[in-house]
Amino acid sequence: MQTVFTRRQAMALGLTGVFAATVPASANVLSYKLRPEDAELAFTFSAGGVALRGTAPLQSADIVVDTARLDRSSAAVIANVAQARTGIGPATTAMRSTEVLDTARFPSARFRSTGVELGRDGRISSGAVILGDLTLRGVTRPVRLAATLSRPAGTAPDDLRVLNVRLTGALDRTGFGATGYANLVDATVQLDIRATLSAV
């Protein structure tokens, strides 16, 4: 679980690039590791007209920045949905059941990017979209996620010791076979994936 890119390239980009498939190693490469305590998949949905929020821990996030060709960027994220919870016992039990996530058979959800649509001026910060495949309940379907990569507020432009990654979007749960409780729970689920990466 590492993210690598050169300090000089990152400074030139202002950290507006994110997610590359491969970056050749060099003397200036910075490696990063996921902070498990600062990484999670959050989701919101409506049940009986009431908005509920849940979370699931991230198992891994493989992210690398290719500063030469941002449009070739990529990301791979695995979330432990077997540990997903809503804060409301009955709702959590229903969510993990065979009618919805079926976590006994499919304990993980996986996202792997397939492409990047850069924002205005070729920048991530001006509205980039990560295209990818999401696997849930053993079903893989394409999704579109908005992406950002940033330094913590107040840090200097050349301080790359910590980076924040965020992916947001939505999915129709019924497309993955999670059709249970349709008369109570809406089909649309909003996703918000956040991760903090630290230099090794």
Description:
- This protein starts with a strand and ends with a strand.
- By secondary structure, the protein is mainly beta.
- An 8-stranded antiparallel beta barrel has the order 2-3-4-5-6-7-8-9.
- It has 2 helices and 9 strands.
- It has helices spanning 7-13, 89-96, and strands at 3-6, 29-47, 50-64, 74-80, 108-117, 129-136, 139-150, 162-172, 188-199.
- The radius of gyration is 18 Å and the shape is globular.
- The longest helix is centred in the middle third of the chain and has 8 residues, at 89-96.
What Rg, in angstroms, do the CA atoms define? Answer: 18 Å
> Helix segment count?
2
SSE-based structural type = mainly beta
Measured by DSSP, the beta-strand proportion falls in: over 45%
Largest sheet report: 8 strands, antiparallel, barrel
**H and E string:** EHEEEHEEEEE
What does the average pLDDT come to? 80
Question: Which outline best applies?
Answer: globular
Please tally the β strands and state the result: 9
Helicity range of the residues? under 10%
- Give unreliable regions as ranges: 1-29
- The end-to-end distance, rounded to whole angstroms, is 11 Å
